[in-house]
Amino acid sequence: DEVEKTLVGFWQELLGVDQVGVQDSFFDLGGHSLLAVRLFAKIKSAYRVEFPISVLFEAPTIERCAALLREHLGPQTDVEGSADVSAPSTAARPRYTHLVAMHTGDGGPKTPFFLVAGMFGNVLNLRHLAHLVGTDRRFYGLQARGLYGEQAPHETFEEMAAEYIAELTSVQPRGPYFLGGFSGGGITAYEIARQLEARGEEVALLVMLDTPVPMPPADLSLRDRVLIQRSELRSKGPAYVAEWAERRAAWELGKLRRRFESATPDNTPEKFHDEAIEQAFRRALGRYVVAPRKHAAVHLFRPKLPVAYDLGEGRRINHERSYVFEDNGWTPFVREVVVAEVPGDHDSMVLEPNVRVLARRLREVVEQAEAAQRRSR
Questions:
Q1: Tens-digit pLDDT profile for residues 229-262
Q2: Across-strand partners of 338?
Q3: Neighbour tally for 95: CB within 10 Å
Q4: Over the stretch 319-331, which tens digit does the pLDDT of each residue have?
Q5: Is 372 helix (H, G, I), strand (E, B) or coil?
Q6: What is the C-alpha to C-alpha distance for residues 368 and 207, in angstroms, rounded to an integer?
Q7: How far apart are CA 12 and CA 20, in angstroms?
Q8: Which of these, 125, 193, 151, 115, lies nearest to 277 by C-alpha position?
Q9: Are 181 and 190 in contact (CB under 8 A)?
Q10: Helices (H) and strands (E) in the chain, counts
């Protein structure tokens, strides 16, 4: 029909594909996060319906997306399928604001796994991980408030966790719970665990995907700064002085640019609300106080540490001149940090092909936790 024809045109333009079938998957044709934002901007412009991009998990095909559109348009569409532009804009909200089923099917009787998205709150980059962990278990992503529509992002991790709990308990009312978080989302997962345990619930598994502890980074000591300069001078000779001066000037210029660029945010419709979500996240980071969970362990999956200088006695420093730690700084707050190194870097560890190793290791940890629960019954 006309709705499907319109969507086919959008997909052909955005994906660069000549032939699109109504049952082809957006993801299988090469769709990704930015293209999803552009797709739904076009849908909003044509039909005045605002879908969250996470709707692609339940409607990844033109056939299913068109069905959702018809459901929300109803009598606003004439017989030719064209939109009545005089009708008020409709926010086609999903059943949940935060909770996203990452694959179809009921997942069977196994304990669900809940994974909080990273700092920008978008779950699309975690799609491959969810599928590779397996469709025999319900796998939910938790996305940020403020990704779409006019809702403001959360200002504290405590508030964020409380709203996430309200939705995840609607699909799993009682523990034990299996939780995880990617990057900054691990902090929210930690707070979810803390709040659930305060209610008397059991959190049997907490996984962090390269989450650093939310503490201000320690300034390099004068001794370590001198050691770094000495090491650079030894390896590069007199040319290092000129290189240092050039790098310092570039750093100052970058700082000046960031100061002014941050005052002119990009609010075009084909962008995530990245800036507002990031700023709210950073404000929450400054307010959050990590409460110890000394009875519990954390499983930390992280890439190889980006060590630029090893100064001995456990003092390792990256190229940004910050200390790096095997446990990402979590040991003082939990009983144990079980560290597993995975291929890739912070971003690519959840993308192909590196995600295959991460998914296998994560599946093993989740299955071990489930086996432990069966033994304890």
A1: 666 656 666 665 555 556 555 655 554 444 334 3
A2: 299
A3: 9
A4: 666 777 889 999 9
A5: helix
A6: 13
A7: 7
A8: 151
A9: yes
A10: 10, 12
Residue 163 pLDDT greater than 90, yes or no: yes
Contacts for 310 with CB less than 8 Å, ≥ 6 apart: 316
pTM of the model: 0.77
DSSP track, 42-64: HHHHHH-EE--GGGGGT--BHHH
Q: Are strands 113-116 and 177-182 parallel, antiparallel or unpaired?
A: parallel
Tokens of residue 24, six digits: 């082809």
Residues 242-260 as b or e (16 or more Cβ within 10 Å = b): eeeeeeeeeeeeeeeeeee
Cis preceding-peptide flag for 353 (omega within 30 of 0): yes
User: What is the spatial distance between Cα 359 and Cα 180, in angstroms, rounded to a whole number?
Assistant: 13
Predicted confidence at residue 97, as pLDDT, reads 81
State the Cα–Cα distance between residues 13 and 7, nearest whole angstrom: 10
The whole-chain average pLDDT of the chain stands at: 81
Q: In Å, what is the CA distance from 109 to each residue of 106, 177, 361?
A: 8, 14, 21
CB 46 within 8 A of CB 69: no
For 335-356, the pLDDT digits (tens) are 999 999 999 999 999 999 999 9
